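This week, look over our next protein:
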Amino acid sequence: MKLLIALLFASLSLSLISSCFATEYKDQYGTTNPVEESIEFQLDKLRTSPHDGTLTVLCWKAHELRKASMNKKALPVLLECAKRGHDISMLDLASMYELGTEVQQSYKQAAKWLKKSSDRGFSTAQLYYGIALLTGKGVKQNIIEGKSLIKKAAAQEDNLAINLINSNYDIESVIPDGNLETNQTSKTLNIN
């Protein structure tokens, strides 16, 4: 089994490497070796083929670009992925709006994306939207609903949610200084 996995991985790696160095050749029959590895090509394909199976792969590529601080390149893909219901993309957008990374800073927009993902049952979004409701950051403060969402995240074994409940909802216990902005990259939306 290990050998089969190793061979599959090697085969995939070789095909990816060869596609990066392949040159495009056009003739009367069409184009061979198109540049299908570019994120722009894949995004265009995704926009024209709404049920294309590349959605998840493309969304994760954008997430990895964001983690590598290539936010400008990731933003259009994250927006498309979030519109199509990709939870990690919604969390990435929420973080970008909260920090004002490549977008105008907006706690309201950050909360909007957290709510969309939270409504889909994604525990990390439930936790952070619950915190937004507790603090009133970007939304009207609603402590009862905020605690309810955090309990839902804890029921899905989200450790930060469990710790927050165990600390009697002391946000500083899971986010030092209770400052979502300065601790955003290290303490919140930690989906790596």
Strands lie at 25-27, 30-32.
